[in-house]
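@channel anyone free to eyeball this complex?
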Amino acid sequence: MEEILGYIKNNKQNYIEELKEFLKIPSISTLTENKNDIARCAQFVSDNLKKIGLSRVEIIKTEGHPLVYGEWLGAPGKPTILIYGHYDVQPVDPVELWNSPPFEPTLKNGKIFARGATDDKGQVFMHFKSAEAYFKNEGSLPLNVKFIIEGEEEVGSESLNIFLKNNSDLLKCDAVLISDSSLYGPGIPTLTYGLRGIAYLEVEMIGPNRDLHSGSFGGAVANPINKMAQLISKLLDKDGKVTIPGFYDDVIKLTKKEKENFKTLKFSDKNFAKDLGVDELNGEKGFSTLERLWARPTFDCNGIIGGFTGKGAKTVIPSKVTAKISMRLVPDQDPNKIAKLFERHIKKIAPKSVKIKVTNLHGGYPSLTNIENPANIAASKAMAKAFGKKTVFMREGGSIPIVTEFSKKLKAPVVLMGLGLNTENLHSPNEHFDLNHFELGIISSAYFMKEFAETK
Amino acid sequence: MEEILGYIKNNKQNYIEELKEFLKIPSISTLTENKNDIARCAQFVSDNLKKIGLSRVEIIKTEGHPLVYGEWLGAPGKPTILIYGHYDVQPVDPVELWNSPPFEPTLKNGKIFARGATDDKGQVFMHFKSAEAYFKNEGSLPLNVKFIIEGEEEVGSESLNIFLKNNSDLLKCDAVLISDSSLYGPGIPTLTYGLRGIAYLEVEMIGPNRDLHSGSFGGAVANPINKMAQLISKLLDKDGKVTIPGFYDDVIKLTKKEKENFKTLKFSDKNFAKDLGVDELNGEKGFSTLERLWARPTFDCNGIIGGFTGKGAKTVIPSKVTAKISMRLVPDQDPNKIAKLFERHIKKIAPKSVKIKVTNLHGGYPSLTNIENPANIAASKAMAKAFGKKTVFMREGGSIPIVTEFSKKLKAPVVLMGLGLNTENLHSPNEHFDLNHFELGIISSAYFMKEFAETK
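replying in thread with the prediction:
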């Protein structure tokens, strides 16, 4: 193991240079104009997996963006792990708020700044490099490894879902290892056992059949922006609870033990508010910040546009307004059921003076993993060794919808070994990844392969 | 008079060709990139006023866009009229909804389509051409005429207001004639005696200091779009009344006589809704559509933008959202007072979890004219002669803020001889002007000069 660790330490600079090449590719999955970049990025992943020493690597075409599959099965009798990650990234707007161009990776204060640095290119790359360290030093891995890297995580993982349904034999494994989440804090080894799901919809509200002069028409015809504001405001009550009938029906309440564990994490509301630059936090009444983030569903308008939005004043009553709306979900809420409840409810409460069009953009299931399994125990030991500290267990507010599908279809436990920080601006300008955590992640991955190999 | 009318009839095609040149200039006053077009348009107005035969024409530089002043004072002992209009136009977005390019004037079904066709280039041009008809046939006008044509009507007329304050002697007159409003219906001669005012503000609501991942942060920090929706929805109650304390304090109630006059106009709610493509009208409870449009104040969000507004889904909690908000005002509401009441109220009711920035973009006073004066009586006779029908009197929902300033500073009655139609898409795509009304407007203007000249 010492040779492996030495190799990782000596090669850190090379790893960073390679990661830069990965980060330079603008693989934005939601924008059609980046389709070629996505293809180029899949090729990069495939090339890198071949280079480190896997015995089989394939780019798999889909209806959407390609998957990359890789394997090395040279350890008969030993466990098999499936490592999942994604090479697609979020859009970069508002691009003017970036201090360095989002696809020109920049090192500063021990961090690498670029879109995808922490979500998820930097994190998935850690496992490529731990495997490389084994191959270069021992010519083999301590267990069997499969990789499945997708390009649609930020848009709902539809192609991977279909592939998973039809190829559960190919992906068969004893545990799924995913690094696409966060540490509880800098330098704190963390395993995540719960994720929120999501229902994401677009609502278009249409009033008059054309934009109108607000003088000639104002006061006598419904203004869709006014009405949309009223609609959105009706969906949350004064205590911050979602008012859609049936919304909370399937929510599993936090156990006493979990609530106590959350308390031991000593979360500071004051520091959290300070970091966000807000005078006061805001959320559902009756819950702590960690409970709100990890174990309660939400209702958020993620975007809205309508009418005149340029500089100056234009006195228009717009014909329409469009809002993007998402609800983070917790176990056992079902994104399809929630989307239906949402659509039915808003169509019921919207006034007759406007028309409404709802589009379900994507959904993902929430997940909760029982952590008393050999894979999570091995991961806990591995991280503790890498960091030199006891591993903590937490839930996470974000969604990795595919997690539920993996545990259902492959009947294998999922290990969420996230090395990011939720202060690393994922989905925002100036996304970055701490390069110390990058190295600790490679070491944790290497320890995990060894620890988990020894369970069989 | 027959010669004048004959000349107008014979020259209609030339007038339309000249109007096209006027409409080709994209004189959008609110966009800084059109500053040169504005200057070019002022030059066009100046050249045309010189060409028709005025004795003095000047382009007057201001802090904003230039004014054009013209005069012919060769009728001593006769009354003097001041003709006001504006050569600036509204922006053209959404430009993809125009059937022909907004600055390539297009004739179709007896209408001319272009930005500014009815608001106000087509209407102000009628008076240029009636004056031309007199000069070409008689070498003189029946009374003294002054023109003041501005380039900032769509952005608040600030420069004209300053000019008016310092030059009331230059602009001294017995009546102000303005064509920047609508006929009650096609072919119905109409004089407008009331206009709404406006208070127009921009509200920026700021939450966290950066865009956040809605998974990692959602539920624990205020989402500015959610909060903006709540704020906007609180400003109107369920009866459609504005909830800002003091908002209605200065509203003059409709007289019984006015209400009865409105009823005689036989407004069809059904046709109005059908034209707008809505299933149901919407407005303040307890008032008819004409009352809502002409004699009641409003609250409208004219534009809103925040968060992710591209195609697809991005799970962001935006740092900020911006809304443009206007309130149409009725006599005797004061736009400055209303803007202050608005700002004070929203700062009071906004939650502490967000910050608010309010910018007062522009304001305009409402107006009510007593129609029993020689100028309006002459105008009523003139339009009746031109159209061959009795002139009707109405109020109008739009604003010409300068009207109040004219009557205050010049102590002269204002004649609102509008030849547009409020179905002519002013401020919307496919703005147009009926060319029959264009001709009737030139004739009405010519008759008015004669009728009003005879009162002294």
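from a first look: The mean pLDDT of chain B is 96.
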